[in-house]
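step 3/5: co-fold with C2E
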Amino acid sequence: MDRNLADCRIRFIEGEEGMPSRQLIRRRISPYEDSTVLTDPLTGLGNLRRFIDKINRLISERADDPAPFAIGVADLDGFKPINDLFGRGAGDAILQQVAMRLRAAMEENATVTRIGADEFAFLLPMVFSEGTAAERAQMLIEILSAPYHVGQRTARLSASAGCSLFYSEEDTAELLLSKAETALYQAKRSGRGTVMVYTREMEDAAKRATHIEQALRRAVAAGEVEPHFQPIVDLSSRQVVGFETLARWTDRDLGEVAPAVFIPIAEERGVIGQLSQLMLRKAAQAARDWPKELFLSFNLSPSQLVDQNTAQHILNILEQTSFDPRRLEIEITENGLMSDPASAKRILQDLRRRGIRVSLDDFGTGQSSLGRLREFAFDKLKIDRTFVSSILDDRPSEHIIRAILAMCEGLGMEVVAEGIEEEAQAERLVQFGCSGGQGHLFGRPRNAHHTLSYLHESVYPSKYAG
Ligand code: C2E
Ligand code: MG
Ligand code: MG
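step 4/5: write tokens
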């Protein structure tokens, strides 16, 4: 039983600032672990084994009394950096304080245990509804967010929690825990300090995601995901200066699947690396046939900026396809810098050393700080389309765009406004001094073949004539 349980447990990889990198790894309990040990030596709370025992006992009690009960898992946000910054001793002291607070907050009959480094699980026998479970978990999270005193210093932490409810005997202890972990994962994804209760919709979404993941793995292995290319123009002359690569996938059974759906799944399920390499290889091969002055822009996902092999993979592909690195631009988002800024910095440095340029994508929508702009010295910034789409009728958007443009000028960064759909938006942006633009007004993403025809026919007819 323990082996199965161990196999279904999920652990978050936390970055320096405690953002889940959206990647899951499965944690295994050692089969050699002493099965008689039921207490966590650091906090004195029960351990995972005790937690499972308690749930099993309650399940058998409830065999005659069909009342539901709730369990939950709370995970500290940003615990790893605390350990790194303050040292392990301080980390341990905080975990002890967490344990004390949780124990004090448990009502009669309820149990709290420590089931992972910074993961605590609680069993609430007298909670019968999803609403009450969420309320209790919210209260626990608030208790955990009060400051911690470690020696002379004070640390602040937040926590996220996921809960699940026992309704029938089909809900085994393992299943309940795995559901609570799925809910916790969703909570972490939607930001720090959040509580989620496992729902049927979550289960359906998880099944759908697994279906898409399997189809995507097959498609990537068969090379069936295609790069499409969207023109990026110089706004005043309207000349095409480069193209952004955007992945497109049409599955035999699922039909066309949007990147907004399959990219996050590829990131979460660890397919993004292979997908990205396929995309870059195909894109570089296509772009070799374009005029040399056109650049190729390519998106990297946040999880790729924590993987130290990323730079080498990119450079290898450029070498194999004989694509000049100076024609490549990498687009990363603010969130990509947040999970592990030091790792992102190393990867980007390796790329820039070879002449690859780096742009900050979707600017204004992420959680990064302006300090990062200084630290990372991007070559280019892409203003997110939410600002562009409201530029004509929304004064705040106009002010924000003007401020971004002034900042980019001061920092010597190029700018591209994304999502331009109307002529009037383009004109307004030119008035404000924005030099680059991208959007349906100038062209939608098209496949390699159509992109080449487009270049032949409308952009460089003379260049291709002979
Ligand atoms: P992004 O990098 O910000 O790409 C721009 C998105 O805006 C694209 O959506 C593009 O089709 C869309 N777009 C461009 N012009 C307009 C416009 O005028 N109006 C509107 N409404 N939309 C416009 P798409 O292709 O659906 O991609 C969504 C996101 O998926 C991308 O956002 C990017 O973050 C991600 N993505 C796409 N391909 C890849 C890839 O190969 N690797 C990675 N890591 N991410 C990718
Ligand atoms: Mg992009
Ligand atoms: Mg963008």
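step 5/5: annotate
The chain has two domains: 5-200, 209-464.
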